[in-house]
Amino acid sequence: MKILLLVQQEQRVILDRLYEGIAAHTDCDLRWLGREDQANLRRYFRHNVRVDDYERIVFFLRFKQEIRQVPFIRTVPNLVILEHDACQNYFPGKYQGKFSRHYAQLPWARVISSGFTVAQRLREEGVDAVFVPKGYDQTMLRNLGLERDIELAFVGSTKSSVYTERRRMLDEIGAREQLLITRTASGDEYLRTLNRIRFFVGADAGIGEYMIKNFEAMACGCVLCANDQGAGENAALGFRDMENVVLYRDAAELSAKLALLREDAGLAARIAAAGQALAEREYRFDRLGEKIALALEPPLRPRPPLGAIERFRLQFGF
Predict the structure, then answer these.
(1) Which of 78, 165, 255, 298, by CA, is between 20 and 30 Å from 261?
(2) Beta bridge partners of residue 180, listed in sequence order
(3) Where is the Spore protein YkvP/CgeB glycosyl transferase-like domain (predicted)?
């Protein structure tokens, strides 16, 4: 399948291996769009894209820019939107409800969401939504077999308003446990830090899906202690409490399970090994790239013919 994959030039997470995974299973024209091009997709397409050359046109762009350009985006044929932030549609914040409204204006587009429950809720709203989870870069992150001299830690950001509940949860855990909260540079420093952590705290409170750090920690051999995102999400991901992951709903439950694991080092080691095996089997970016490619294949919903005004604007570029 010939696809055009448009991605953000500036991203918080390095996703090159994910794009390579998609390209390995499609005939992929990958293009990196900077802020200026993302802000004026009509101009970019007019000068750089022949839409008839592609069986799918895939957007993995800033949602903030997409919602400002609906009149043009409605003219893009064979559209698929890859979205890792649609969970923000369902919790308080500046994007609450905006994903639903955006996709309602593009009912023929397919949305590939990184949350199982999010995709399910979007489908209930009439969106052609498919679930493909987040994962990790298999070329950067792995178990190095280092001494795990940091018992309990979280590595990542807590400053964004999106993470208000994360900060609250970490504060509650920190009041009960000796919890290290830190940040690192990406690359080797992050890899080595994860490899020093015995119990990694995933604190996705209020998010509704599991963020990328959960999978990265599993791949590096940590015991993942994940804030429970619900039975549907866990079943879809293969998360089994106290078998390949430690699930908790509040700080008290996490403390109780940590006490058990401190008494039973063998159980902790088995959970870490099973979690690592699950991540390596299912959540490598090359594997997820294949899943995204498969999600592109089913026929899309028919798009109504363009109206006279849309055809005029498309022809003359305004």
Answers:
(1) 165
(2) 153
(3) 178-287
pLDDT of residue 11: 79
- The pLDDT of residue 121: 98
Angle between helices 251-263 and 164-174 (to 10 degrees): 50
Task: Look at strands 128-131 and 150-155 and give their pairing.
Answer: unpaired
CA distances from 272 to 144, 219, 246, 269 (A): 13, 9, 10, 5
Strand 79-83's sheet: what is its strand order? 27-33, 2-8, 56-60, 79-83, 110-113, 128-131
> What does DSSP assign to residue 142?
-
- For residue 112, the cross-strand partners are 82, 130
Going by C-beta distance under 8 Å and a sequence separation of 6 or more, which residues neighbour residue 112?
A: 80, 81, 82, 83, 129, 130, 131, 132, 292, 295
The rounded distance, in Å, linking the Cα atoms of 176 and 139 is 36
Q: What is the Cα–Cα distance from 233 to 204, expressed in whole angstroms?
A: 13
Tokens found for residue 214: 């959960």
Whole-number Å distance between alpha carbons of 315 and 43: 12
- Inter-CA distances, 295 with 203, 283, 284, 289, Å: 29, 16, 17, 10
Handedness of CA 243, 246, 252, 255 (dihedral sign): positive
Alpha carbon distance 257, 244 (integer Å): 14
Instruction: Name the percent of the chain lying above pLDDT 70.
Output: 96
Contacts of 285 (CB under 8 A, 6+ apart): 15, 17, 18, 20, 21, 135, 136, 137, 138
Distance in Å from the first CA to the final CA of the chain: 31
Cβ neighbors of 108 (< 8 A, separation 6 or more) are 79, 128, 300, 301, 302, 303, 304
Report the distance separating Cα 120 and Cα 100, nearest Å. Answer: 12
Residue 45 clears pLDDT 80, i.e. is over it: yes
